[in-house]
């Protein structure tokens, strides 16, 4: 499991994948990332401290991810992150949080004392598909509402049941309401959600220009940021 990497093609930053307590929701139909969660606090704290020791501050920007939300990281790990931010002169953090934490985002900003770009797994702006098929438990009604809280949504493409029109609409709304975003091309995993190969092929051809869009990062594989397995 790779837990430290550098992202150098767009929005240069260091990235670490840490361990955390179980995801507060943990019922998304498509997600098996939560298998990386743990209840062994001491081992998590030790592992996370080792991963954070690789941060150099080279870009002044650090992204911290875990299999859930940043609010599920142990308090000791959050304190270690704050120490790294100060010692390595980090100027900006990227964190990820579920919609259910939307009213608590400023707590983390105050604790860490640094600007935070909040990413969130929106998956799609299509309410019915997100809530009734993906079981996301993120009941925002539209992209504008999400943008009141979060800076950078993560969308998924290439799932059986999605349509080209849904994807077109998602990307249009992403660019309309957000300065940054991530698009994840779905990869089959241990869940019953399946990849639509024809839809993926269409997306890769239709949106080839996103490769050169500095505001949108496209992940063709789960490990494209250099962390995970």
Your description of this structure?
This protein is α/β, with parallel strands linked by helices and 229 residues long. It contains 7 helices and 8 strands; from the N terminus they run ββαβαβαβααβαβαβ. The chain has helices spanning 41-52, 75-87, 105-112, 127-133, 143-147, 164-177, 197-206; strands at 4-7, 13-18, 61-66, 92-96, 116-123, 152-157, 181-185, 216-219. The protein is 30% helix and 19% strand. Helix 1 (41-52) packs parallel to helix 2 (75-87). The protein has an 8-stranded mixed sheet. The model has no long low-confidence stretch (mean pLDDT 95).
Measured by DSSP, the beta-strand proportion falls in 15-25%
Secondary-structure-based class equals alpha/beta
Average of per-residue pLDDT values? 95
Radius of gyration: 17 Å
How would you sum up the global shape? Answer: globular
Share of residues in helices: 25-40%
How many helix segments?
Answer: 7
N-to-C span: 5 Å
Succession of helices and strands: EEHEHEHEHHEHEHE
Unreliable runs, pLDDT <50, ≥5 residues? Answer: none
Biggest sheet: strand arrangement:
1-2-3-4-5-6-7-8
Oligomeric grouping of the chains: single chain
* Main β sheet profile: 8 strands, mixed
Number of strands: 8
